[in-house]
Every structure is written in C-alpha cells, then in structure tokens.
Design goal:
Shape: flat
Structural class: mainly alpha
Order of helices and strands: HHHHHHHHHHHHH
Distance between the termini: 97 Å
Oligomer: single chain
Helix content: 55-70%
Largest sheet: none
Radius of gyration: 36 Å
Amino acid sequence: SYITGSLDRKPWEHPEVIKVINNQSEEMLNFRWLLVGFLTGSVGCWVQFTSEFAPRGLIDMATEEEEGGAKDWHDLWAWMPATNGANEGALWSYWVMLHFKPNLTFAQYNTITIYVRNNTQQFMNAMFTEEDYQVCAIDSSEEEARRQKEQLEFNDKLAQMQQEKVRAVEEKQVEKLRFLSTMVLIDSVDQISKLMVVRLNEQLDLLHLMDTEIPKKSICGRKEEQCCHLKDAFLCYVDHGKPSFDAFFITARPETPVLADWAGEDEEDN
C-alpha cells in the first residue's frame, strides 16, 4: 500500500498503475527480486534523500507556503531543480543557463563563469579604475559574430562531406550494378560445385537483386554454406519462371539519347 510503499505515505498519484502491477504480480515472477535489486543498489542515495525528510528536519518543519504556496518556483524555499545538470560539467552548466537566458552567447557565458569562479568582483573593488570599467563595457558582439560565422562554415563543410559520402556510396552501388549486368547466371545447380568462392559470391549478389531474402555473401560463411545458399536461391529463381534482371540494371547503364536528340544530330550533319 502507499502507507508502506511511499515516503510521504500519501495516496498514489497513479493508482491504476499500481493496481495493474498487483494484478499481474503472479505472472511477473522475477519482478519482486528486480525491484529489491534496484533498491539495494541505490540504498546509498536513498539514505541521503530520506535524511532530508527526517522528523523535525527542514522539510518536515516547512510551512505550506514554503513547500508550495509561493506564486513562482523562484520563490519556493524548498525548490530543487529536476536534473543535476549544473554539476555535470561546463557543457551541462551552459545548457541549464540557456533555459533561463536563451539569447546568452558563448562569450557572455564564459565571462560570467570566470567572473564567479575567480571571485572577480573582489578584485575589481580593490584594483579597478574608471578606465578599467570602460574597457569591460566594450561590446563583444563582433567576437560572437565571428564564432557564428566559423560555426556556419563548419556546418557547411560537414554537410558537404556527408553529401560526398552519400555520393560515393551511390557511385559504388552503380558500379556494382554495372558489373553484375555483365555477368551470366548459371544454367543449372550442377555448375555450383565447380565455381570458385569469388564466382559464388558474384552469383549470390546477382540473385540477391531478385530476392532480398537471399543471404548476402558476407554472412554466408564457408564455401559449402555458400553453395547451399546459391542452390536454394537458384531453384527459387527457376520456380519463379526465371524473370529478367533488366529492371535492376537500368540505372547502371549509360543513358540512351532520346529520338529528339538523334534527330537534332542528323540535322546538324546535314
């Protein structure tokens, strides 16, 4: 029940979920031990969490206004952030700060971070002159504009590299289709045992175009296994009436000029 199963001993927020779990508990034989294992592994943290709810502690003695009666979460006395991002390094700290100041620049964030970390205010109070304050007021927008420009250039370069990578894969695929279009498929299963491994792979690649369920050469294993796969693939190809491969090689063949192009060339020759 929620009396023994929750820290605040208040009714479940989603009782329907607890009801479903209880109804299916007999079917989930390992559920109890999984839960016990999870709680055992996190017991160290739970000791820390539960100490905050100790009797006559800060949370226990908090008034209703301090617990949740404030109009804004900034005014909550016992408010805690939902994540621990601020303590997970500079990147997470920057991410958390962006939630409150979406227009914050890198330069501004770095300035604030160094200012707090180095206790710069104390140094400024002791050493700064009027001229120093004027220098600090210099606009840093040019630096941010330069950073954004470099970021855009990097993004463009990255996109170009990705396009080149995709283009290389497509060209490789077309080249493979061109090679397969010059191949001659075996006539019978009797020829399979006489083929070398390289030829077996080529025959499998060719039949794989017709039926994608045919294993690729990379997962066929040794020659004996390749022969078995090729035999099954060829028999399946025969059962389907030996369909033509021409449709698969259209993109791999050089473009044929249309009739209008031929007519134009004839007119130029005349």
